[in-house]
Amino acid sequence: MRIGLYPGTFDPVTNGHLDIIGRAVKLVDRLVIGVAVNEGKGPLFTLEERVEILREETKGLTGAEIVVQPFKSLLVHFAREVGATVIVRGLRAVADFEYEFQMTAMNQQLARDIETVFLMADPRHQAVASRLVKEIAKLDGDITAFVPPQVAAKLRAKIG
Predict the structure, then answer these.
(1) What local confidence, expressed as pLDDT, does residue 58 receive?
(2) CA-to-CA distance for 151 and 102, rounded, in angstroms?
(3) Out of 26, 41, 72, 131, which one is annotated catalytic?
(4) Helix (H, G, I), strand (E, B) or coil at 157
(5) Average pLDDT over residues 117-135
(6) Pair 148, 55: CB distance under 8 Å
(7) Would you kindly state where each structural domain of the chain is located, as residue ranges?
(8) Among 20, 68, 71, 83, which one is least packed by beta carbons within 10 Å?
């Protein structure tokens, strides 16, 4: 069984994240969506809320078994814990590539047996970032093109 890991903070999950998930399930038998604690980013949603939102938003996807699981360890340690041999990452722009290139090089030094696969963001989602979605929502802008309706409602409720 080929197990893939798609890690992220997902604060909140965006249509871009869901697009990558929808394509990643075509590549593996099981996709573990690793929701990072990442307190350094100061997430708006709690870890439990982010896990639950992802479970709700991925419920209807087919192609592979999807498991949503929180983690706070080193990514390659978590990959080994869940049996993943592939880490799935989404790329939006050149800036993403530079960061991901460094992370992949470090992960290869730590775990040569785990491959990283990059999926290019759909052009409709290349500018979408959770940080920007939160900022637009805080300024009372329209976020419906960037997140699913249920996520938009939860974000609005969280912001107040």
Answers:
(1) 97
(2) 31
(3) 41
(4) helix
(5) 90
(6) no
(7) 3-126
(8) 83
pLDDT tens by residue, 25-60: 999 999 999 999 977 778 999 999 999 999 999 998
**What's 3-126's CATH class?**
alpha beta
Pairing between β-strand 65-71 and β-strand 30-36 as defined by DSSP bridges: parallel
Measure Cα distances from 93 to 105, 127, 136 in Å. 18, 8, 20
Query: What is the C-alpha to C-alpha distance for residues 47 and 134, in angstroms, rounded to an integer?
Result: 16
Distance CA 106, CA 54 (A): 28
Which of 125, 130, 134, 154 is labelled catalytic? 130
- Which of 23, 30, 92, 158 is an active site residue? 92
